[in-house]
Design brief:
It is found in: Endomembrane system. By secondary structure, the chain is mainly alpha-helical. The chain contains 21 helices and four strands. Strand 2 and strand 3 form a beta hairpin.
Amino acid sequence: MDKFFKISERGSNVRTEIIAGLTTFFAMAYIVVTNPNQIVSFNHLAPDADPVFQQIWNAVYVASILAAVIGTLLMALYAKMPFAQACGMGLNSFFFVSFILPEIIACGDGPIVGDNIIKGYHAGLVIILVSGIVFMIFSLTGLRAKVAKALPDCLKKAIPAGIGLFIAFIGFQNVGIIQANQYTLVQFVDIHGAITSEEGIITVLPALLALLGLLVIAILEKFKVKGSVLISIAGVTVLYYILSGTTPSFDMSQVGQTFSDFGKIGITGVFSGDAWARAFTGEEIGGIFSAIMLVVTFCLVDMFDTIGTLYGTAAQADMLDKNGDPINVNQCMTSDSIATVAGAVCGTSTCTTYVESAAGVAAGGRTGLTSLVVAICFVICLFLSPFASLVPACATAPALIYVGVLMLKGFAKVDMHDITSAVPAFLALVMMPLTYSISNGIGIGAIAYVIITLCTGKYQKKDIPITIIAALFVIKFIFVTM
């Protein structure tokens, strides 16, 4: 095991790798239920909703886990890197808006037509499959790695910091530390309002526990306590159930139906001729041009989400080569593309490398053994679906926020005295959390870099690849709302 995963060579040990794998899994376990919720839109899961939504939810639930297992196992055994994969957030909502919502709208005020909803779902899977095949071609030929290496140095350094802000923002949002405000858009958790309300302090308990968990991690790290993140997750979980007065429970009654729906409408979707016809000629999607733009969009988002995550987490783990690129980058890209193809065949949206992998890296994960542990945990969830929901968001949020702290240090290496580096790097940094998208941040930074270098006479031949990337993002921003 040590020789296969190069555990000693990378300065780690089996115990650390297992702890890191558990840390990553609990940080991203929310995707098990969140992904099917996003794809069918949670609002449609009301008790009186059309049963077809529950069918799709069940199918996507199983497909999401299978895609995560396949992708993460590839990362573990092929790429041998401590990165986990699962269905991308944002892309799942985009899937709903692009393929399922049009069918709902087409029903008007009348009853939901279940067959049409399923057909829209299947057409979407075809688009995901095609984009996955494009990913695979790019990966196997090395083009994706070349695209990654073509990024300007300022963006390579800004991406990890931007991802740090992004995942910290996710952590803050997940537990209500940052709340919505109609005037300022966001605000700090309203502790005073909670105290004076009828419900009392219990309404902000998750936020307070998450802040406590973050401080615990910081203190334990200062004293160099191994497994500080996992200790915090376990401690906050126990406190949550004690203070909230709730008890964890398992409901195994729906497991059989979940697998049944997966077999009926999940894994069979992309093999339907009607699904292919709808994907490229259907009125709901908008014809061949719209289908191509959807494929390009899913390609761009997945490619740059993965590139961003790889650079960010590899930099944090000190696993970059002499050129500042992640080691085994080709294998990581290939694993990602195969996972997307597998996910489409199983019945779910685009699979991508997860930013929450950084939580495991922060816990000491340096090898594929970390990913193997994550994959095993996902397999357990396949048969024990309530398991993933046992750990509350307030327990995993501190891990995400702490990782944000660690990843920000890379931005200090950006040359802020050179405006051609400073502005693109800054835009990449802030646009990731503000637009809720890693790829948007990279795209906006790339566009700014090209325009500034062109107008200041700093443009060079080596900037041609980043110019192509910027042009693709311009097309995406013009033709696709996301």
